[in-house]
User: Fold these one by one.
Assistant:
Number 1:
Amino acid sequence: MATYSYGGCIEQAYRVNWKIKDVLGTVDFDLSRPWLPADLSGSAGIFCLNPEEKRKLTHVEMGAYAHLFGFLETFIAPLMVDLALDSEGEDRQAFEALTNFASEEVKHMHLFREVSRRVDGRLGFPLKLIDGQSEVARAVLSKNKGAVLLLTSAIEWFTQHHYISSMNHSDELDPLTREIFRCHWMEEAQHARLDHLEALRLFKDMTTIEREETFEDLVWLLATLDGLLEQQAILDCMNLGRYLGRTFTEQERSEVLESLLKAKRHCFIESGVTHPNFLELFLSVTTSSQQMRVQGAVGLLLQKRPIQWNPSD
Ligand SMILES: [Fe+2]
Ligand SMILES: [Fe+2]
């Protein structure tokens, strides 16, 4: 089992801490390059787009990718404040590490809002992005804290995987995009370790009934996340049509939508719940029947077809 410490996390957090102005600097996004690596994009599965249109698709997808992080951080920041209060007066290092974690997430939300503003400026029109983060955060935070923490752990581990596996060594990727997610990756590394420590602390004192509730809630949270991805995939499809100045046939639209949603499910669900460090935590706090229930629900989500296109959207 991995051994992390609150003290180690806070020390490393101070070592890598960055400012938004340094991340964004003076360089702008480069329209001649992809803004999202091929394995995080739906472009490979789309045959009705030419190579230039596929590159433009990654511009639209990265705008949504960055926005979705800010969207999810809207519940992660208050979750960490809540967890920090559990440690106040009991464990000084845990309190400091968790409050710093919350503060970094607030900074990330500001960063991703600024990224959205710059993306819109570069593309020349405002991307349609899912809204309602405060309402979603309220609903998420009404669920069992252990479930929200497990979802958070999956999210923070996939930030590590996406940067290391797909962005770090890509010569082709837009340099500003790589810098944004490099900086995010550096701070998220401590977040993922703190999620692990806090999950072990919470699960240690949970009753059997509370554990059952946790996994019911985790399935609900994953389905809710999937619903958000569906909404954004539809908006991406609309954004792409506007960016390309192209009206898709029904068949083309369904091909684009299906591939976009598949890529988003891979990015935001599959690459998190299959990350080895998430699995190490998940398997240590679950019984085999709970594992089967959650894994079965995830399997169904990943197979689900996109929702029907609604022309009034
Ligand atoms: Fe973050
Ligand atoms: Fe984070």
Number 2:
Amino acid sequence: MTIARESESPHRSLERMNRFQEPEARRIIADLGLPPASRGLDVGCGVGLYGLWLAEAVGPGGHVIGIEPEAERVETARTLVAGRLETRRLEFRQGDGTAIPLPDHSVDWVWCGDVLHHIVETERALREFLRVVRPGGRIVVKESQVLSALFLPGHPELERRIQLAEIRRTLDEGGGRSFQERRQTTLASLRTVGLTATMRTYLLERRAPLGAADHEYIQHTVFSRNWGERLRDLLSREDWERRSAVCEPGAPANILSTPDYFCIYPITVFMADASG
Ligand SMILES: C[S@@+](CC[C@H](N)C(=O)[O-])C[C@H]1O[C@@H](n2cnc3c(N)ncnc32)[C@H](O)[C@@H]1O
């Protein structure tokens, strides 16, 4: 029997996700047309790569502050992007999206990427975004997988059952609502605080032969971590074995080594103007 690994640290798996998304992430950020030299806030900045790309987009006169609740993740962000940009352009601080350590109206825009579904007090966080952004500024909420991604082409039934297991797994963390349900109610949450958002979905497509960043993300973060031990008890024994046969790194039928492998992964961006 093959053994599923879940050795991936949360920081490493976030970095892999960022590297996988990087080409489209840079396009999404460019499409936002953030004003040059503007001041922005990245709520739940993770390991800091999105903060770096946002800071690069606003140019040398701009300033981006990334906040994270855990001190350790703030340190990881600092280490990962240290030396890439001067502190006057990009800084990381400890802080929570529901109690942002910034004065009222102190930023031109707020970016919140793949974070809002983690914050059970969604409305409280959105009111904080509105408090810190200047009148006429912008609030951008990015959520990956509002639609489930396709990672197992040719195995739709198995993949659907894995997705359902993931939905069940995140119910507790999401305060009784799964992450996917929470992602799908983003527009409604924005409306609750008086924000009318536009939305746009970007589709990432990758196909064999996969580049290193894509292979690492799908193999280590998706297959071994997200679909690893944490799902074992939520799948039938037969489905766990089917999943192991196509997802385990050393398995002869590992799907990533097949010549016709492809994946499709959606990213949705919700954008709202904060009225004066
Ligand atoms: C999926 S990660 C996304 C990180 C980063 N934005 C990115 O795109 O790579 C979710 C992040 O939300 C952060 N987070 C969770 N609750 C938060 C809160 N209340 N305020 C700010 N960040 C929070 C987590 O620490 C984690 O880094």
Number 3:
Amino acid sequence: MHTTLLLFLAHIAAAAAAYSARCSSNVVTYWGQNSWGGSHLDQRSNWEKSLASYCQDDTFDVINISFLTNFNLTGLPVLNHAFHCEDKFNKTNTLDCPGIGADVKTCQGRGKKIVLSLGGGNIYTYGLSTAADGQAFADTVWNMFLGGKHTYRPYGNAVLDGVDLDIESGAHDGYPAFINRLREHFKGASKQYIISAAPQCVYPDSNLNSTLSNAWIDNNYVQFYNNPCNLANIDNQWNFDYASWDRLAKANPNTNSKVYVGLPAGSGAAGNGYMSLDTAKSDLTRLHANFSSTFGGIMLWDASWYTNNADYVKGLSKWLKTTLPCNDGTHTTESASLAKSTPPATKTQSATKTSSTKTKTSSTKTKASSSKSKAKASSTKTKTSSSKTKTSSTKPSPTESESPKPTHTK
Ligand SMILES: *[C@@H]1O[C@H](CO)[C@@H](O)[C@H](O)[C@H]1NC(C)=O
Ligand SMILES: *[C@@H]1O[C@H](CO)[C@@H](O)[C@H](O)[C@H]1NC(C)=O
Ligand SMILES: *[C@@H]1O[C@H](CO)[C@@H](O)[C@H](O)[C@H]1NC(C)=O
Ligand SMILES: *[C@@H]1O[C@H](CO)[C@@H](O)[C@H](O)[C@H]1NC(C)=O
Ligand SMILES: CC(=O)N[C@H]1CO[C@H](CO)[C@@H](O)[C@@H]1O
């Protein structure tokens, strides 16, 4: 179907490593749950660093902040950011995180997109059962996190770049209306917002199938791990099924909807699916060759592994950016200059930020990835394709019930 879309004037030169919907080399990660720390409670110096510290080099283009854990229509939504922020607005359960707000602006100033992730697993409760619920909650999210106004804005006047749906439970019939209503708000806005979802590789997704098919989705971050459909099974046609995700993206009302290959960023980051750098490169090359029109890049779970498995994370990101071309045949590093003279791709917004920094992060403390797989494996309830509960448990955070609560640092 054809969609004439919000075409944003804001097509300024794309920074070397900034997000671009035209390219196949975007690298996305997720921040706020400290998955490495969940299995290394006594090694606090290597826990996940501040959000801004993952924005200091070109490794990541999009970072999603997780999670907005509890939401419904009777109360203010509740966030969880592990140990990063634990202060709440008076008389509410909603976090008040001005420090994260400042980091959001720092990251955006460096060309990164910072997206709010809704949902998650574990003990969280949320759900949108009707279209009316979806619309009302979209207004709340717009007002508290995006371009609107609200008494309680957890990140102050920082305006996030979109929402990511990591819906693993709860009523789900209200999500298409949620997305449609958000997009009405986006129409009047001067910036490019992203709507993404992070389904598991098991197709179709048990919670979001109809939303992913019928509502506008920019990026599908498919988790190719934790299940027999993980990328390591690329040659097993009974387990691995990328083609269905490719078809889903092509059928989305957004004619530029993309699939991202979600991979663990370290050997203990998921129950299975972590692979050597060489194998990952080779498999990604094969997928890109067959599915280039929907191939948006990779998603790495999660940011805490950048701190603890840096060679791998940076190596994969750098390789992707220098190897896989953008839709117009350029590479991300070349597109910076090209973007100045080339109009944005037909339907989507091109990357908007100008500043690109190449500063090295100082937080990198590389550790052998092989040393840390064990603890996690036991706490990981690896999902099989028939189960419905999703990967929540592969995203442990020290603030969850299973572990002592670390104190607030900031
Ligand atoms: C709705 O959300 C609020 C805040 O998270 C929570 O306190 C309340 O128990 C929830 N209500 C229901 C019915 O889930
Ligand atoms: C929150 O409550 C504390 C203690 O009652 C008070 O000192 C503080 O000023 C309040 N903050 C706001 C923003 O109302
Ligand atoms: C998934 O959604 C599509 C589009 O609405 C529909 O055709 C398909 O039957 C759904 N699959 C399942 C298993 O519900
Ligand atoms: C790519 O397409 C070729 C030719 O159809 C097929 O043989 C191969 O299995 C595909 N590879 C992947 C990873 O889908
Ligand atoms: C792209 C990306 O990192 N997406 C992640 C956002 O956060 C959810 C959890 O809320 C993850 O499941 C996604 O993988």
